[in-house]
Specification:
Chain lengths: ~170, ~270
Amino acid sequence: MRSISSIVFFRFIIIFLAQIIVFNNILIFGVSADIYIVFLLIFPQNINKSLYYFLIFLYGIFLDSFSNSFGIITFSLLISAYLRPYILDFSFGNFDMRKVGKVRDYLINTTIYQKLTYISLVIFSHNFILYSIEIFSIYKLDLVFRNATISSLVSITLILIFMSLFYYKNER
Amino acid sequence: MQSFINFFIEKIDKIVFLILLIISFSFIINRNFFQNSKFNFFTNNIITSINNQTKQINYYLNLKTDNTRLISENLVLKMQLSSVTKDSNSNFKSGNYNYNVADIISNSIKYSRNYLIINKGSNDSVKLDDGLVTSSGIIGIISKVSPKYSTAISILNSDIKINSKIKRTNHFGSLQWNGKDHKIMTLYDVPKSANIKINDSVVSGGMSFVFQEGIPIGKVKSIELREDSNYYVINVELFEDLSSLSSVYITSNHNKNELENLKIDNEIN
């Protein structure tokens, strides 16, 4: 039985390397393809909250140092991490939190609409905070919306593909 | 006291969250934390080791474009050589500038303030405010130098303006990026009296000490004149594709200190 910490560590390394080596070099419609937020989306639920924030912080710092972005990914990932439990509640409302500990169960046993709500809410909030902090100008609000929307749509598509590869109902 | 400690234990998650949030916000505020902290050494070593591996693959993928780039650069140099032999005076201006080659370690174009890291530092006599150019464009300006590496502000950074001019008419203006398309920059402050046409080429102006005069930057793509303004807003299409760069030249001006002292003297008097 693999422990939960080894699973998190393994995901940390794999998703991080995939982002900086492969996806940082790919541009789709002029925006780079971001998949790093998968780490936050499938982060285990019943882990210590402080540890959860700290791991997300560490993950953000690593990503920032490789993409020359000086802390903006860390900042917006932390805020998304804070919002995530509420978004989980909102999109999978008919699930009892204490019974279903794993995010995996959320992602397998729910309808596509629930999944889509969850993924797109997390990603939109993340990208909107990211670009508003990065551009940081009220006169360029159109640019914030434009960048956040394009980048979110690209990431949502990529992440849905990713999730359909790893999280499916085993019907055998 | 007991209740205070209880409060602390109860809210520890939120306190941790707030502390981490403040730390990350402080990173954003002083955007140069890489160079100032010990963290820099650690990350730069990881960055180079991982990037050197991926670069090996990228080199092979880029061989074709690099070759065409070199051929066109060669052609330009040959043409310049032929003009030098006819008129040896035309080269005296570049005598003030040193050129050096560097590889790009990391580059980004996805934000509105982009930076790049190159693998030459103060050990290779890179100095603050040196320029980065290629044969077909300006790339950036060095902003931080460490012994082995340096960070440069990319021209795709909406905080900097580059002095440049229209080659045909010699009218100058300042070039700035609006954060949308990585191939389009905007040239401001060219007066209405200038007779500018589409496809005029834009080169670097001679008013900065960073770049040599006359480095090609791009060509005029569209011209806009607002009704209440006396200045054109010109969209310039860059010759250089900043998303696929692998190596650059570092230019440094020998006489920059002298020129800068002169400028300060003028401002004081």
